[in-house]
Write a structure and sequence with these properties.
Elements lengths: L3 E4 L9 H14 L6 H6 L5 H11 L8 H19 L11 H10 L3 E4 L6 H8 L7 E2 L13 H9 L7 E5 L2 H9 L3 E5 L5 E3 L7 H5 L3
Parallel strand pairs: 1-2, 1-4, 2-3, 4-5, 5-6
Helix pairs in contact: 1-4, 3-4
Bound molecules: 1,6-di-O-phosphono-beta-D-glucopyranose and magnesium ion.
Length: about 210
């Protein structure tokens, strides 16, 4: 039986995927890399440096930049992104997620956050949601990002639960792979998982139990 829930953040709790897209797209186009929907989808859940490399590879210019130049490019994207997320308020929780967090809390589930974002603690504060979570995995401490299982394995450790008692919620392909690799139940939101839900609005314990 499931006792704990590990949450992805961008695209699951917070309506911030659109801000990542805006900031990456602006940087990509300034470097002459053509934006496309597939690239946009593949960037979901991928950490900052891996995202930059994916964009540079899409434009076949990955060898054009030194590590120091890449650091500067990633920092400029993050500066633009931070300006966008500074405007977040509790109204920017994705639809239905506050109710779901309340439902889980009322039913005694333990919750943690498995986000690739170094901005996750700031965003959860802005949304007024920090207190729901036992802890947040620090993505800077990971050896490998999503799709590697490490981040979701760590999210279960934070809950002091064996992975078989944990379900993970994700909106990205890379994240679903990470959850499955960690031997947790994968709940896909707008992406195929062990349980698949079309949007955050559909998420509830009943909707999940109906598919397991
Ligand atoms: P940052 P998630 C991920 O968050 C985003 O989906 C991805 O677009 C972003 O590049 C990554 O975090 C790193 O974010 O630059 O803020 O550290 O979906 O894993 O919650
Ligand atoms: Mg996400």
């Amino acid at each position: 039986d499931i006792k704990g829930v590990a949450f992805d953040m961008d695209g699951v709790i917070a309506d911030t995927a659109k801000f990542h897209t805006m900031a990456w797209r602006q940087l990509a186009e300034s470097l002459g890399v053509t934006w496309n929907p597939e690239l946009q989808e593949n960037l979901k859940g991928i950490g900052r440096m891996d995202s930059l490399n994916m964009i540079l590879e899409a434009g076949d210019i990955v060898d054009k930049y030194s590590d120091a130049q890449k650091e500067a490019l990633a920092t400029s994207k993050n500066d633009a992104y931070k300006e966008l997320i500074a405007t977040l308020t509790p109204d920017d929780n994705l639809p239905g997620m506050k109710n779901f967090l309340d439902e889980l809390q009322e039913n005694g589930y333990q919750m943690s956050v498995a986000s690739a974002s170094k901005n996750a603690p700031f965003i959860l504060e802005r949304l007024g949601l920090t207190s729901y979570f036992v802890g947040i995995v620090d993505p800077a401490s990971l050896h490998a990002g999503k799709p590697d299982p490490e981040i979701f394995a760590r999210a279960a450790e934070i809950l002091d639960l064996d992975p078989q008692y944990v379900m993970g919620l994700e909106d990205s392909e890379a994240g679903i792979q990470s959850i499955r690799g960690a031997n947790e139940l994968a709940i896909g939101i707008g992406v195929t998982g062990d349980v698949t839900l079309a949007s955050t609005q559909e998420v509830s314990l009943a909707a999940i139990k109906a598919q397991v």
